[in-house]
Design a protein that fits this description.
alpha+beta, 5-stranded mixed β-sheet, PAS-like_dom_sf
Length: about 600
């Protein structure tokens, strides 16, 4: 239940953490979307303002060209007329684009009521200039000088409406500028809101996720240290109990007692009335106050109990059967005796029961020996149970060491990063924009480092590649990851190209054995090179972990020495659990070779793989 509760707590923290990161990512995406949209709108506004300014210039150019055409000769006038026609075409095209939009020129349709109203007010002025200019162009194109006086009205129309057109275009450009400024202010406000949301989420992460996680890690460390102390004390007590049971077993194993042969102890008639009792029985069981009258009296029965016994006995022998039972009752000295009783009927010539003979075998020595053997067997069972408890305690210590290592990794790695993140967040000053932006970048990098550290810890706990792709891929990934993180050179070889998938239980235990062996080679053996090789045949899989380190005495792997390495015990226990066999060869200065043999076929007595 405690493990289930802790799992729920960490699952809830992980869910909160992922939710917070998702919200931050969403706010960044929304911010980028708004910025890009605003940039596109700014680009469109720039085109519009540029085109509106060009309209002012074109209107002035139309007035200038109309005045010049009245003073030049025919050849020069033709050139000016062509230019006037071109200017008129561009002027009408720009006006249409500004009013109704132009997708090719990246000018959208204006949705501003103020802009549309200004264009609507300006349209009559534009039409007056445009139509007058076209009439002047058409009449001058014919080359008739007598038509010049007729064009004075159109020229006056152009010159009269030009200043009005310029004022309208100024109003339109100013309105566009105000709209663009409003968009910028709105974008700034949106960016501040998104920034505030992101900052609030980071603060909530620190308060609701990182600080509780740090507190939980510290509590776990305290529990781990206490559990280690309790486990060591329990290990000493179990060791003393094991020694005591060994001494008891030695004493019990020396007991050997004989079994007595059966003897005739009494005779009776067919009704069970005694007329003979042997001296052996009288010496062993007779009391002065006792008088034996019936067979029931031989076994200490009297009254109704004796009558019932005699009735049952007569029923048995009347059916041509022998009566047999093992009875326990006291002898003359008061000791309990185990007597194997046989009552055999003797028949006369007519086939009727004539005599009952009572035989007894003293089973006391055998029963006592069996009891002693039972005690001995029970002691052996208790020894094995306590031995298993001892192993379990050592395995528990190994697990506690592993948990302690993980907790230290979390405390020294993730815990320190979380603390740094807390201080980074607390030092943010919103009034200092550039400094705040830099700190947010640092916080983002720190969060990425925390995620990476969590992934490393998660990989050590349960590598996903092992469950997804199998043992070979898991071992290869393990060797590659350790090779990257350590200064040692690690090599993995799949000699026989083994690709078979085993059960998750077997693959997980093989992976943990190899992981423990490689970590020991790096941590204790000081080996510059570690080779992990894998080969197989039809019957078994063989894994070899070889290093060229300092080596050790073979007694260091004794399973029952708590002062020696628990890593070897864990490896041995895991190998036994999957019906494997673990061999460890090592000598000081010559390195260590660890071989793991795992059956690939289900043999009698093996656990199915």
């Amino acid at each position: 239940m405690r493990i289930y509760t802790q799992h729920n707590q960490f699952s809830r923290l992980r869910a909160y953490y992922l939710l917070a990161l998702s919200i931050i990512a969403l706010s960044i995406i929304i911010g980028q979307f708004l910025v890009q949209r605003h940039l596109r709108e700014q680009e469109s506004d720039a085109h519009i303002v540029n085109m509106a300014g060009r309209q002012r210039m074109l209107s002035q150019k139309i007035s200038k060209l109309i005045l010049l055409t009245n003073r030049l000769n025919t050849k020069e006038r033709d050139s000016l007329l062509k230019e006037l026609a071109s200017v008129n075409a561009e002027w009408i095209e720009n006006n249409t684009s500004l009013r109704y939009g132009n997708e090719a020129a990246a000018i959208p349709i204006s949705k501003s009521k103020a802009i549309n109203r200004l264009f609507l007010e300006n349209q009559p002025v534009f039409d007056s200039i445009y139509f007058a200019s076209n009439r002047i162009y058409s009449q001058l194109k014919n080359g008739d000088k007598s038509s010049y006086p007729l064009l004075e009205n159109d020229m006056r129309t152009v010159l009269k409406h030009e200043p009005i057109f310029l004022r309208h275009m100024d109003s339109i450009v100013n309105t566009y500028e105000k709209l663009a400024s409003g968009k910028i202010v709105k974008l700034k406000r949106t960016e501040y809101i998104l920034f505030g949301i992101s900052l609030l989420i980071i603060i909530l992460e620190v308060l609701l996720i990182f600080i509780p996680t740090t507190r939980k890690v510290n509590e776990t460390l305290i529990k781990l240290i206490k559990s280690e102390s309790d486990a060591q004390q329990m290990s000493k007590e179990i060791g003393a109990l094991y020694a005591s049971l060994e001494e008891s077993y030695e004493r019990i194993s020396g007991i050997t007692l004989p079994v007595a042969p059966p003897r005739l102890i009494a005779k009776s008639d067919k009704g069970g009335n005694l007329y003979y009792v042997s001296d052996y029985y009288l010496r062993s069981f007779s009391h002065e106050e006792q008088r034996y009258k019936t067979i029931a009296n031989l076994f200490g029965l009297a009254g109704e109990a004796a009558d019932d016994f005699n009735d049952q006995l007569i029923d048995v022998v009347s059916n041509l059967k022998n009566w047999h039972k093992e009875l326990v009752y006291s002898d003359k000295s008061g000791e309990k005796r185990h007597m194997d009783i046989h009552i055999i009927p003797i028949y006369n010539q007519e086939g009727e029961v004539d005599v009952l003979q009572v035989f007894a075998a003293d089973m006391t020595p055998r029963r006592l020996a069996e009891q002693d053997m039972y005690k001995k067997d029970r002691a052996e069972i208790e020894r094995k149970v306590n031995e298993q408890k001892f192993r379990s305690i050592l395995v528990l210590e190994g697990q506690e060491e592993e948990r302690k290592r993980i907790a230290m990794n979390i405390h020294d790695g993730i815990g320190q990063m979380l603390t740094s993140l807390k201080f980074q967040t607390a030092s943010i000053d919103l009034s200092k924009t550039k400094e705040t932006e830099q700190k947010l970048l640092d916080i983002n990098k720190l969060i990425k480092d925390i995620i990476q550290e969590v992934r490393i810890v998660t990989f050590n706990l349960k590598p996903p590649v092992l469950s997804d792709y199998g043992l070979v891929a898991g071992l290869k990934n393990l060797v590659q990851e350790i090779d990257k993180l350590s200064n040692n050179r690690l090599i993995f070889e799949n000699i026989t190209d083994f690709q078979q998938r085993l059960s998750p239980k077997v693959e997980n235990n093989i992976y943990r054995i190899v992981q423990e062996a490689v970590n020991n080679a790096i941590k204790y053996a000081n080996s510059p090179t570690v080779l992990v090789s894998l080969e197989h045949n039809t019957d078994e899989l063989v894994l070899t972990i070889k290093d060229t380190g300092v080596g050790f005495e073979s007694k260091s792997t004794d399973l029952f020495h708590a002062d020696y390495g628990h890593g070897f015990l864990n490896m041995q226990e895991r190998a036994t659990y999957i019906n494997g066999k673990l061999l460890i060869e090592s000598k000081p200065g010559l390195g260590t070779i660890i071989k793991l043999f795992v059956p690939l076929k289900n043999k009698p007595g093996n656990i199915a793989i």
